[in-house]
Amino acid sequence: MAKTSTCSFSMVIILMLLPCLCLIQQEAMAANTKKTYIVQMKHRHNPSKHPTHTDWYAATLKYHNSHSDSLLYSYKTAYNGFSASLNDEQAHLLRRSDSVLAVYEDTLYTLHTTRTPEFLGLQKGLNLWEGHTIQDLDHASNDIIIGVLDTGVWPEAKSFDDSGMPPVPTRWRGQCESAPDFDPSLCNRKLIGARTFSKGYLLSSGGGYMVREKEQVSPRDRDGHGTHTATTAAGSAVPNATLLGYATGTARGMAPQARVAAYKVCWTGGCYGSDILAGIDQAIQDGVDVLSLSLGGSSTAYHRDTIAIGTFAAVQKGIFVACSAGNSGPRQGSIANVAPWVMTVGAGTLDRDFPAYVKIGNGKRFSGVSLYGGEGIGDEPVGLVYFTDKSNSSSSVCMPGSLEPSLVRGKVVVCDRGLNARAEKSAVVREAGGVGMILANTVASGEEVVADSHLVPAVAVGRSAGDEIREYASLDPNPTAVLSFGGTVLNVRPSPVVAAFSSRGPNGVTPQILKPDIIGPGVNILAGWSEAVGPSGLSKDTRKTQFNIMSGTSMSCPHISGLGALLKAAHPDWSPSAMKSALMTTASTHDNTNSPLKDAGGGGGESSTPWAHGAGYVNPQKAFSPGLVYDATTDDYVDFLCSLDYYTPETIQLIVKNPNVNCSDRFDDPGQLNYPSFSVVFGSKKRVVTYTRTLTNVGAAGSVYDVDVDAPPSLVAITVKPTRLVFPQVGDKQTYTVTFVSNNTPHHDDYSLLSKFGTIVWSNQLHQVRSPVAFAWIHDS
């Protein structure tokens, strides 16, 4: 009995210890789990015994208990440092090294997912400035190279036709990589580069290298997003382009004679910061003139923002950078990519639409949109169904597997917008036997509707129409509907309208810098597409198209990138900030009815504000001859960073890669940066704000400009000194001071409503140099 008791007691102890042992084992495994880290080095500490920085990085890893083969990327131009596969202990040891400035985990970023040249006024024969035509610019842009960081490229797309293009510029140092599905010979005089960056992505599982199902490391675009953005920026002219009969016409990019270099940094699992940084690093070395990034994450401090750090190096080299603002609107403060050295691009509509209609059994008819390209459901009413069962809410939004075929077969299904992809809902309806779909907006999506290439006849409608249709389908004992499609309609009025999805200010990182900078065409954009995926982007979509219509700030960004290429061709001596200023100060704040821009995010046709549209909707006709520009150097950006009290000189080195930063010259306020717009932040203890700006004459000698100001009545007074600027010569600079005085504070507890807007405009008979002004009141501590 004693032996048995002892044995039983021992077993009990073991059983009690098992959970603890498992927990210890799990903690040990977690500690040894490797993740990608980005390491910033102090380059002045590089011992001379190491022939290259890569050798130094490998030796540093080995010294701190890491294998040298854990090195993923050795950055050369975009960053002073490297990325590596490390466990927590190895990362901790590196942080304690005197040679290391910072170590932080890799960041996951996401994609911000025809008619536009005509809508923007870039017709053949158009005189832009001093006798130069758009054809002159097209010819000059042969020497401009646009680097597109995205999901790769479909090289067979007609938009990459290089007929008639001269040889590739001799300064180009890039290449086309080889892969089982991508031969370097597919590149040509239009598509001159195609590279991949996947090491951070392949380690994203937290274990080791892992090749995702059906995905191989190749420049080939199997998503479509990268091909769409690249051809929007610089696609060659393709006649008779169309998506399933919609938007038929000649498709061309903004700079159809510019060169394209594709850097694939985005994969099935997203876009990792280490890969993005490697792509920017390589693009700078290859010799690009413009960078286009239709991707991003939530705004974060600049020294933790991979895109901000990499693009700073690009701007230092004279590269113009455009980034998408994000698709998290109309929520305020949702803006991404807010660094002042990049151009942050929001989205607006075109004057083209794809109308579709719903007629329900009670005789009411509702307007919507659609890109469905197959046979319709006919003119006879068919049954309509909407699932309102609160116990199974997934049915109302048509989640996969949520629809009962016996209740859906042969009917049109009302699907609420939200939770899953819009096009996926139509696939769910089709699989359940439905013959059509009404995609109905809810409170969250408001009245803005986006056209999609659905897998069944489908019409997207706004919230108010959706509410009426839902009520009818729920209460009528025998609800029916008829769906019809109106094709392509042009000259829609009013246009443009700010897209509801376009992310908004204020700038959460630096409130004194107004973002977005500008908006461009980003709704229902036709451009080249990958034939590896159907137009809906769904794996179940077996349709193949050479073009697709997409919406998002991902689409507006390459419009500005392409225009940046044209500006670079027109004015090769302009800095990136001068180019940005030209685009901003000439942007339009009125639509084609000559009314102030409307905001689709408001739901009721409200006027837009600079937190939604920045300086306005891009107007390239005027941007080539802006008269004056607000120029800034990278030294100015350093002074800007030094004005942020939470940054030490050593922290700023993370961004600017200059070991000699000491912040002896700094702005008193970050708003002192010579920026083309103003964002004025008042507090209970700060009721007067004074900023200085410098304008450079890029127009004619002997130009004289007078100022005109507009401020919120009774709230703010604006004083500008002097009120007239005289520029005897081209290139002359003149400085003015503007003082903003808060006379009153808006009475409201919600910060989002404590905002007003105004303008400062310098003008003469030829030019209007317009700067938006945003005012915000915050509660001081």
Automatic annotation (TrEMBL):
Q: What region holds the Inhibitor I9 domain?
A: 36-112
Q: Where is the active site?
A: D150 (charge relay system), H225 (charge relay system), S554 (charge relay system)
The record's subcellular location field reads:
Secreted
Region of interest (Disordered), residue spans: 588-612
Where this protein primarily resides, as one coarse class?
secreted
The answer to whether keyword Signal applies is yes
In terms of domain of life, where is this protein from? Eukaryota
Q: Which CDD domains match?
A: PA_subtilisin_like, Peptidases_S8_3
Keywords in alphabetical order: Hydrolase, Protease, Secreted, Serine protease, Signal
* Any Pfam family hit: PA
- Tell me its family: Belongs to the peptidase S8 family.
**Official protein name in the record:** Subtilisin-like protease SBT1.8
From what organism does this protein derive? Stylosanthes scabra
| Species classification | Eukaryota, Viridiplantae, Streptophyta, Embryophyta, Tracheophyta
